[in-house]
Amino acid sequence: MLVGVIEIGVLSRQYYKAVSCKQKISIRIYLNEIIPVIPFATGIAYTALIAVVANQIDKLVMSNILPIHEYGYFTLVVIISTGIVQLSKPIGQAVLPRMTYLLSNEDMQKMLTLYRGTQIVAVFIVPLSGVIAIYSYEILYLWSGEINAAEWGKDILFWFSLSSGILAVNSFQYHLQFAYGKLKLHVIYTSVMAIIQIPLLIYVAYMYGPLQVAVTWFFSGC
Protein backbone atom coordinates (compact mmCIF):
# COMPACT_ATOMS: atom_id res chain seq x y z
CA MET A 1 0.00 0.00 0.00
CA LEU A 2 2.82 2.39 0.88
CA VAL A 3 4.46 1.77 -2.49
CA GLY A 4 1.14 2.49 -4.21
CA VAL A 5 0.72 5.79 -2.35
CA ILE A 6 4.27 6.83 -3.24
CA GLU A 7 3.69 5.87 -6.86
CA ILE A 8 0.53 7.99 -7.07
CA GLY A 9 2.34 10.95 -5.55
CA VAL A 10 5.31 10.71 -7.90
CA LEU A 11 3.16 10.22 -11.01
CA SER A 12 0.88 13.12 -10.04
CA ARG A 13 3.85 15.42 -9.55
CA GLN A 14 5.42 14.43 -12.86
CA TYR A 15 2.10 14.78 -14.68
CA TYR A 16 1.41 18.31 -13.50
CA LYS A 17 5.02 19.23 -14.13
CA ALA A 18 4.77 17.94 -17.71
CA VAL A 19 1.54 19.82 -18.51
CA SER A 20 2.78 22.99 -16.81
CA CYS A 21 -0.33 23.33 -14.68
CA LYS A 22 -0.18 26.59 -12.74
CA GLN A 23 -3.63 26.39 -11.19
CA LYS A 24 -4.15 25.31 -7.63
CA ILE A 25 -4.86 21.61 -7.45
CA SER A 26 -7.87 20.54 -5.41
CA ILE A 27 -9.64 17.25 -4.88
CA ARG A 28 -13.29 17.31 -5.86
CA ILE A 29 -15.89 14.63 -6.44
CA TYR A 30 -18.10 15.23 -9.46
CA LEU A 31 -21.24 13.23 -8.73
CA ASN A 32 -22.81 14.12 -12.06
CA GLU A 33 -19.94 12.26 -13.74
CA ILE A 34 -20.03 9.29 -11.37
CA ILE A 35 -23.76 8.55 -11.16
CA PRO A 36 -24.23 7.49 -14.84
CA VAL A 37 -21.54 4.79 -14.56
CA ILE A 38 -22.65 3.38 -11.19
CA PRO A 39 -24.89 0.63 -12.70
CA PHE A 40 -22.11 -0.48 -15.04
CA ALA A 41 -19.45 -0.44 -12.31
CA THR A 42 -21.78 -2.25 -9.92
CA GLY A 43 -22.40 -4.95 -12.52
CA ILE A 44 -18.66 -5.50 -12.95
CA ALA A 45 -18.07 -5.68 -9.19
CA TYR A 46 -21.02 -8.00 -8.63
CA THR A 47 -20.11 -10.48 -11.36
CA ALA A 48 -16.45 -10.44 -10.30
CA LEU A 49 -17.45 -11.28 -6.73
CA ILE A 50 -19.71 -14.12 -7.85
CA ALA A 51 -16.95 -15.47 -10.11
CA VAL A 52 -14.47 -15.51 -7.22
CA VAL A 53 -16.91 -17.33 -4.94
CA ALA A 54 -17.85 -19.87 -7.62
CA ASN A 55 -14.22 -20.53 -8.55
CA GLN A 56 -13.03 -20.95 -4.97
CA ILE A 57 -15.94 -22.75 -3.31
CA ASP A 58 -14.91 -26.22 -4.49
CA LYS A 59 -11.34 -25.68 -3.28
CA LEU A 60 -12.60 -24.48 0.10
CA VAL A 61 -14.81 -27.54 0.50
CA MET A 62 -12.10 -29.91 -0.71
CA SER A 63 -9.68 -28.53 1.87
CA ASN A 64 -12.09 -29.79 4.53
CA ILE A 65 -12.84 -33.24 3.18
CA LEU A 66 -9.62 -34.43 1.51
CA PRO A 67 -6.47 -35.68 3.24
CA ILE A 68 -3.63 -33.20 2.93
CA HIS A 69 -1.73 -35.19 0.28
CA GLU A 70 -4.84 -35.59 -1.87
CA TYR A 71 -5.61 -31.91 -1.51
CA GLY A 72 -2.12 -31.26 -2.81
CA TYR A 73 -2.91 -33.39 -5.86
CA PHE A 74 -6.18 -31.53 -6.31
CA THR A 75 -4.39 -28.17 -6.12
CA LEU A 76 -1.94 -29.32 -8.80
CA VAL A 77 -4.83 -30.26 -11.08
CA VAL A 78 -6.43 -26.86 -10.54
CA ILE A 79 -3.17 -25.03 -11.28
CA ILE A 80 -2.72 -26.85 -14.60
CA SER A 81 -6.31 -26.37 -15.72
CA THR A 82 -6.39 -22.72 -14.66
CA GLY A 83 -3.34 -22.09 -16.82
CA ILE A 84 -5.52 -22.69 -19.89
CA VAL A 85 -7.75 -19.75 -18.97
CA GLN A 86 -4.76 -17.56 -18.13
CA LEU A 87 -3.35 -18.05 -21.62
CA SER A 88 -6.42 -16.42 -23.18
CA LYS A 89 -6.44 -13.38 -20.89
CA PRO A 90 -3.68 -11.35 -22.62
CA ILE A 91 -5.62 -11.44 -25.88
CA GLY A 92 -8.79 -10.32 -24.14
CA GLN A 93 -6.94 -7.51 -22.37
CA ALA A 94 -5.46 -6.34 -25.66
CA VAL A 95 -8.67 -6.57 -27.68
CA LEU A 96 -11.14 -5.07 -25.18
CA PRO A 97 -9.86 -1.44 -25.21
CA ARG A 98 -9.69 -1.49 -29.01
CA MET A 99 -13.24 -2.81 -29.29
CA THR A 100 -14.48 -0.12 -26.91
CA TYR A 101 -12.69 2.57 -28.93
CA LEU A 102 -14.13 1.36 -32.24
CA LEU A 103 -17.65 1.19 -30.82
CA SER A 104 -17.37 4.69 -29.37
CA ASN A 105 -16.47 5.88 -32.88
CA GLU A 106 -19.30 3.80 -34.39
CA ASP A 107 -16.86 1.91 -36.60
CA MET A 108 -18.84 -1.32 -36.60
CA GLN A 109 -17.05 -2.93 -39.53
CA LYS A 110 -13.61 -2.76 -37.92
CA MET A 111 -15.05 -3.77 -34.56
CA LEU A 112 -16.68 -6.89 -36.03
CA THR A 113 -13.49 -7.74 -37.90
CA LEU A 114 -11.51 -7.44 -34.67
CA TYR A 115 -14.03 -9.49 -32.68
CA ARG A 116 -14.08 -12.25 -35.27
CA GLY A 117 -10.31 -12.25 -35.17
CA THR A 118 -10.49 -13.46 -31.59
CA GLN A 119 -11.40 -16.87 -33.01
CA ILE A 120 -7.66 -17.47 -32.90
CA VAL A 121 -8.16 -18.07 -29.18
CA ALA A 122 -10.49 -20.98 -29.93
CA VAL A 123 -8.07 -22.32 -32.54
CA PHE A 124 -5.32 -22.39 -29.91
CA ILE A 125 -7.18 -23.05 -26.64
CA VAL A 126 -9.57 -25.83 -27.74
CA PRO A 127 -6.81 -28.16 -29.02
CA LEU A 128 -4.66 -27.33 -25.99
CA SER A 129 -7.41 -28.22 -23.52
CA GLY A 130 -8.08 -31.39 -25.50
CA VAL A 131 -4.43 -32.44 -25.42
CA ILE A 132 -4.21 -31.81 -21.67
CA ALA A 133 -7.40 -33.81 -21.14
CA ILE A 134 -6.22 -36.77 -23.23
CA TYR A 135 -2.71 -36.83 -21.78
CA SER A 136 -3.70 -35.87 -18.24
CA TYR A 137 -1.87 -38.83 -16.69
CA GLU A 138 1.39 -38.08 -18.49
CA ILE A 139 1.22 -34.35 -17.72
CA LEU A 140 0.59 -34.92 -14.02
CA TYR A 141 3.41 -37.45 -13.83
CA LEU A 142 5.85 -35.13 -15.62
CA TRP A 143 4.84 -32.23 -13.39
CA SER A 144 4.91 -34.02 -10.04
CA GLY A 145 7.13 -37.02 -10.64
CA GLU A 146 4.67 -39.13 -8.63
CA ILE A 147 2.67 -42.03 -10.03
CA ASN A 148 0.15 -41.69 -7.21
CA ALA A 149 -0.54 -38.07 -8.13
CA ALA A 150 -0.97 -38.97 -11.79
CA GLU A 151 -3.31 -41.86 -11.03
CA TRP A 152 -5.36 -39.85 -8.55
CA GLY A 153 -5.76 -36.72 -10.65
CA LYS A 154 -5.89 -37.89 -14.28
CA ASP A 155 -9.68 -38.13 -14.56
CA ILE A 156 -10.19 -34.92 -12.59
CA LEU A 157 -7.76 -33.04 -14.84
CA PHE A 158 -9.58 -34.43 -17.89
CA TRP A 159 -12.82 -32.70 -16.95
CA PHE A 160 -11.25 -29.57 -15.49
CA SER A 161 -9.15 -28.95 -18.61
CA LEU A 162 -12.20 -29.24 -20.86
CA SER A 163 -14.10 -26.87 -18.55
CA SER A 164 -11.26 -24.35 -18.69
CA GLY A 165 -11.23 -24.49 -22.49
CA ILE A 166 -14.95 -23.71 -22.62
CA LEU A 167 -14.55 -20.91 -20.07
CA ALA A 168 -11.71 -19.32 -22.04
CA VAL A 169 -13.73 -19.27 -25.26
CA ASN A 170 -16.90 -18.06 -23.54
CA SER A 171 -15.10 -15.12 -21.97
CA PHE A 172 -15.20 -13.20 -25.24
CA GLN A 173 -18.96 -12.80 -25.15
CA TYR A 174 -18.37 -10.94 -21.87
CA HIS A 175 -15.79 -8.73 -23.58
CA LEU A 176 -18.34 -7.87 -26.26
CA GLN A 177 -20.95 -6.88 -23.66
CA PHE A 178 -18.32 -4.91 -21.76
CA ALA A 179 -17.33 -3.00 -24.90
CA TYR A 180 -20.96 -2.02 -25.44
CA GLY A 181 -21.26 -1.01 -21.77
CA LYS A 182 -24.27 -3.29 -21.33
CA LEU A 183 -23.77 -6.10 -18.84
CA LYS A 184 -27.42 -6.91 -18.13
CA LEU A 185 -27.34 -10.33 -19.80
CA HIS A 186 -24.06 -11.19 -18.12
CA VAL A 187 -25.39 -10.17 -14.70
CA ILE A 188 -28.55 -12.25 -15.18
CA TYR A 189 -26.57 -15.28 -16.39
CA THR A 190 -24.08 -14.98 -13.52
CA SER A 191 -26.87 -14.68 -10.95
CA VAL A 192 -28.73 -17.73 -12.25
CA MET A 193 -25.55 -19.79 -12.43
CA ALA A 194 -24.56 -18.77 -8.90
CA ILE A 195 -27.93 -19.83 -7.50
CA ILE A 196 -27.62 -23.22 -9.19
CA GLN A 197 -23.89 -23.87 -9.33
CA ILE A 198 -22.61 -22.93 -5.88
CA PRO A 199 -25.03 -25.09 -3.82
CA LEU A 200 -24.65 -27.89 -6.36
CA LEU A 201 -20.85 -27.88 -6.11
CA ILE A 202 -21.00 -27.96 -2.31
CA TYR A 203 -23.46 -30.86 -2.35
CA VAL A 204 -21.52 -32.86 -4.94
CA ALA A 205 -18.21 -32.25 -3.16
CA TYR A 206 -19.47 -33.59 0.17
CA MET A 207 -21.53 -36.44 -1.24
CA TYR A 208 -19.43 -37.73 -4.15
CA GLY A 209 -15.92 -36.27 -4.15
CA PRO A 210 -13.52 -34.36 -6.41
CA LEU A 211 -14.09 -36.29 -9.65
CA GLN A 212 -17.80 -35.59 -9.61
CA VAL A 213 -17.05 -31.93 -8.81
CA ALA A 214 -14.95 -31.76 -11.97
CA VAL A 215 -17.75 -33.34 -14.01
CA THR A 216 -20.23 -30.87 -12.51
CA TRP A 217 -17.95 -27.98 -13.42
CA PHE A 218 -17.85 -29.18 -17.01
CA PHE A 219 -21.58 -29.57 -17.52
CA SER A 220 -22.46 -26.37 -15.64
CA GLY A 221 -20.04 -24.44 -17.85
CA CYS A 222 -21.41 -25.76 -21.14
In this structure, how is the largest beta sheet organized? none
How many H/I helical runs? 10
The tally of beta strands, per DSSP, is: 0
Q: How many angstroms does the end-to-end distance come to?
A: 40 Å
Structural class: mainly alpha
Explain how this protein is built.
With 222 residues, this protein is mostly helical. It has one domain (34-221). It is 86% helix and 0% strand. It has helices at residues 2-18, 31-34, 38-65, 68-104, 108-117, 119-134, 136-144, 147-180, 184-207, 210-221. Helix 3 (38-65) runs parallel beside helix 9 and helix 9 (184-207) packs antiparallel against helix 10 (210-221). The longest helix is centred in the middle third of the chain and has 37 residues, at 68-104. The protein is globular and about 70 Å long. It starts with a helix and ends with a helix.
Keywords:
single chain; 222 residues; transmembrane
Question: TL;DR of this structure?
Answer:
The protein is mostly helical and 222 residues long.
What's the helix and strand layout?
Blueprint: H1 2-18, H2 31-34, H3 38-65, H4 68-104, H5 108-117, H6 119-134, H7 136-144, H8 147-180, H9 184-207, H10 210-221
